[in-house]
Amino acid sequence: MIRRSLFLTIAALLAGVAVAHAASQTTPTPIVPPGTATPAPAPGQRAIVPEAPEPATTAKPEMPPAAPQPATPPAAPPLAAAPTPATPAPAPAAPDTPPAANDAASLTPGALPQVSYGDEGLPPSVKALRAKILAATRTGDLEALRPILEANGESPQLSGGDSDDPIATLKLLSGDPKGREILAILEEVLEAGFVHVDVGTPQEMYIWPYFTRYPLDKLNGPQMVELFRLITAGDFQDMQDKGVYSFYRVGISPDGKWQFFEDGD
């Protein structure tokens, strides 16, 4: 009986030792936080070095997209130099129509007679007589001039006026038996420009064409065209030699009287 009790006691002790040994083998080794001194392991324990935690990857902040750069504006053009004030152009030369003069040969240097056209500046009586003569020439009949000549009172001076009948004289001046050439010449003369001459004197007159009192060497291009409606280039050469216009001309006084229709110097 005593042996059995002793045996059980010994068995109980051995069992307690075994349990204690087993417990020592499973005791967890304490984990030492980083930065803490690691304590020495107890006898029979393995020192466990804690793994250092992987450093957290700091996410780089996402950069916002670059703002679009404004287009570089084109370079401003260089400032233009302030314009130099334009020099005013000289006043255009006055047309060849200054105040009237008495005669082409007596004009002062640079002075030219005033030329007018149509009815411009004509007194009513002169305007009316010119219109009647033009109307008669356009009939193609010399006799259409007879009432005008009779109303004139005194017959105008006519080239080659040896006849008492002015119509007969005009017919002789014409290159055709009907007198139509002289009617054409009379019409062209009165359609040309005219001059008002000898103003304020007994000889004051309106004269067609103005070439009668205009220096031939002062005629410009358009005036030469006007002249060649009345004469030929050969006639003009002869006139240049003489220095004066020598074809037909008409004179009417300010009171509306027909004074002459003649050619010559």
Outline:
By secondary structure, the chain is an alpha+beta fold. The chain has helices at 2-26, 124-137, 146-151, 166-173, 180-191, 221-227, 233-242, and strands at residues 157-158, 195-197, 205-208, 249-252, 258-262.
What does this protein structure show overall?
By secondary structure, the protein is an alpha+beta fold. The protein has a domain at 122-262. Helices cover 31% and strands 7% of the residues. It has helices at 2-26, 124-137, 146-151, 166-173, 180-191, 221-227, 233-242, and strands spanning 157-158, 195-197, 205-208, 249-252, 258-262. A 5-stranded mixed beta sheet has the order 1-5-4-3-2. A hairpin with a 5-residue loop joins strand 4 (249-252) and strand 5. Helix 2 packs antiparallel against helix 5 (180-191). The longest helix is centred in the first third of the chain and has 25 residues, at 2-26. The radius of gyration is 67 Å and the shape is elongated. The chain starts with a helix and ends with a strand. The model is unreliable at 26-45, 52-61, 76-83 and 88-107 (pLDDT under 50).
Helices and strands in order, then pairings?
Blueprint: H1 2-26, H2 124-137, H3 146-151, E1 157-158, H4 166-173, H5 180-191, E2 195-197, E3 205-208, H6 221-227, H7 233-242, E4 249-252, E5 258-262
Parallel strand pairs: 1-5
Antiparallel strand pairs: 2-3, 3-4, 4-5
Mean pLDDT: 76
Measured by DSSP, the beta-strand proportion falls in 5-15%
Q: What structural class results from the helix and strand content?
A: alpha+beta
Helix content: 25-40%
- Main beta sheet: strand number and arrangement? 5 strands, mixed
- The helix/strand series, from N terminus to C terminus, equals HHHEHHEEHHEE
Distance between the termini: 199 Å
- Low-pLDDT stretches are 26-45, 52-61, 76-83, 88-107
Regarding quaternary structure, what we see is single chain
Spatially, the strands of the biggest sheet line up as 1-5-4-3-2
Radius of gyration: 67 Å
Strand segment tally: 5
Number of helices: 7
Could you say which overall geometry the principal axes of the C-alpha atoms support? elongated
